[in-house]
Amino acid sequence: MRAERESYRPRPAPDECGSTSSHRDITEHDAAVGETTEVVPKPAVGDLLRLPPFRALLVANILSATVFGTSRFVFVWLVGELTDWNPATAILGIVIGLPPLFLSAWAGSLADYLAPKRLGAILFVISAVMFTVTALLVQTDTMTVALTMVTGLVAIAAPSMLMPLMQALVPTVSPKEQLMQAVALQNLSMMISTIGGIFLGGAVMQGFGTAAGFWLLVVASVLGLAVVSRAPLPDRLIGAAATRGSVFDGIRIALGTEPLRSLLAITGVLGVAIATSSLLLPEFARDVLGKDSLAASALNVAMSIGMMITSMVLANRWTPSRPGLVLAFFTSVPLGGGLVAIGLSREYAITMLCGFVWGLSGGIAMTVLRTLTQQHTPSELMGRVMGLVAMAQNGAFPITALVLFGLVAATSVSTAMVVIGLLCCALVGLVVARPTVRSL
């Protein structure tokens, strides 16, 4: 196994008959997820939704994404209530971004050999316990800025480990020829969780106080535990090894081969854009636009609706023949351009419109990006590579927050958004300027 090679040819593990064939045919895979061996030229999205494992995964994904995404919004809003010092938001972003940065790859390696149901249940239990502690601290008025940093670091650890597990399960519970549809539906479920989680979280905090936002996360974690415990998930990922594989093997292969290296680079830039939006949008809505928590969460809803629309299009009506070219088009300018447009806006309606359009392009970019990544990942490395994807996307949070700490202190919230947006455009441009991605 050599990292210098431009393409990776994994040595497959012997199957039950001792075979080491490098190709797992579609018939075997479809049988594993409950499909028939009949070849359907254009399978409908309903075929996916009729699969009990895939349907259960969607529900679990909604709940895990609700916990992960909404927790960031709630913690950012909490620290804004505790202090008027603007850089505190950036410091919090660094702190709550550390778990995805350091735990995602490890979680991916666990997903490569542990039973998904057992791992998911453990992580949901930890999540419920930690958010209960946080909610009690807020409700009893004992929460401080320092305690917010500590609880944010600990409480987000389990949800950040759930994300690579949910993503790595998609190829296992869906037919190969419907992978893009499956990824689009999973993205759609994440957007539903954003709408149902962040918007509901903002409304709950508006009506019942900040502590209620954390109790909402406790409820979502308990529901996630119930779903995962009863879900007909497979015992192992397809191609999973009997023992845990090395995290460094996954890193060496992913960073040493194309197109995984370029796809992970784009994922990292996507993480920078998402982190900037997550950290600065609540503060932008409050300090620049003069809005409350409910109006701030509505901006996230507008983005999510845009992503939902394009995810539904990809799931039902459109499978691009040149996905690499589509990815290059929708990331080169729109990814950073959305941040620039929002940062320059001074009207709430215009900001919401910019967020909606940004979401439209983001839905296409995220779906195509992860589909290409999973299509070019060896099955025995799926958990580790998805862990690297989560690390690149969510682990960009603390790095971005560190940059924003200086930018916001030196300039302003809106200027920082514009600068990061231009930086994202430049970084993606460097990647897609080469034909590696465009030719996929």
Description of the molecule:
InterPro entries: MFS, MFS_trans_sf. It holds the Pfam family MFS_1. Keywords: Cell membrane, Membrane, Transmembrane, Transmembrane helix. It contains 19 helices and no strands. Helix 5 (116-139) runs antiparallel to helix 6 (145-155) and helix 11 runs antiparallel to helix 18. The radius of gyration is 21 Å and the shape is globular. The relative contact order is 0.16. It is mainly alpha-helical and 440 residues long. It has a single domain (50-438), classed as Up-down Bundle (Growth Hormone, Chain: A). It has helices at 26-32, 45-49, 52-82, 87-111, 116-139, 145-155, 157-173, 179-208, 210-230, 247-256, 260-288, 293-316, 323-332, 334-344, 348-375, 382-394, 396-410, 413-432, 435-438.
Are there runs of 5+ residues with pLDDT below 50, and where? Answer: 1-40
The total domain count is 1
Number of strands: 0
What's the average pLDDT?
A: 78
End-to-end separation in angstroms reads 23 Å
String of helices and strands: HHHHHHHHHHHHHHHHHHH
Q: List the total number of helices.
A: 19
CATH class identity: Mainly Alpha
Quote the beta fraction.
under 5%
CATH architecture: Up-down Bundle
Shape: globular
Decide which structural class fits the backbone. Answer: mainly alpha
For the sheet with most strands, the description reads:
none
The CATH topology corresponds to Growth Hormone, Chain: A
* Quaternary assembly: single chain
CATH superfamily: MFS general substrate transporter like domains
State the share of residues found in helices, binned by percent: over 70%
Question: Radius of gyration from the CA trace?
Answer: 21 Å
Organism: Ilumatobacter fluminis
Keywords: Cell membrane, Membrane, Transmembrane, Transmembrane helix
InterPro entries: MFS, MFS_trans_sf
GO molecular function: transmembrane transporter activity
